[in-house]
Specification:
Blueprint: H1 12-30, H2 35-56, H3 60-90, E1 94-98, E2 105-109, E3 114-118, E4 125-129
Antiparallel strand pairs: 1-2, 3-4
Bound molecules: zinc ion.
Zinc ion binds next to loops.
């Protein structure tokens, strides 16, 4: 307890780093005979050491900034995946287009023949087959 007082401890980035190091360790085991195995081992060790360094660090301000940056990145990546899987679920009933002028994603019901699509964001109109 006393040892960990004032130190950063484990946070989300730490958890991710431990998972990453475990992943690289597994990779190193499976690819042990190839030169790739050695680099995976180095990466595993690097992730683990960085995780420990962060957990034991007393510069909690800097560490929490790193964690926040990691969470922002994670949110962006997960958001992209969520959007992708959401579209995969709806692909039977809808087609997805990007607005040619503002690049917003637009959803059009499928099987309506040629439709004129009006972008909700910028009002641009274009013809698409649905
Ligand atoms: Zn638009």
């Amino acid at each position: 307890m006393k040892f960990m007082a004032g130190r950063n401890g484990t946070d989300q980035l730490c958890r991710f780093l431990s998972f990453a190091s475990l992943f690289f360790l597994l990779l190193a085991t499976f690819a042990a005979s190839s030169p790739f195995g050695a680099s995976a081992l180095v990466l595993a060790a690097a992730c683990l050491f960085y995780c420990w360094f962060r957990a034991l660090s007393k510069n909690t301000y800097r560490r929490s900034q790193e964690n926040a940056a990691y969470l922002r990145l994670q949110n962006r990546v997960l958001g992209r995946f969520r959007g992708f899987f959401g579209r995969m679920k709806q692909r039977k009933d809808y087609r997805f287009y990007r607005c040619p002028s503002c690049k917003a994603r637009l959803r059009v019901p499928k099987g309506k023949g040629k439709v004129s699509v009006t972008c909700r964001g910028c009002g641009a109109k274009f013809i698409k087959k649905s």
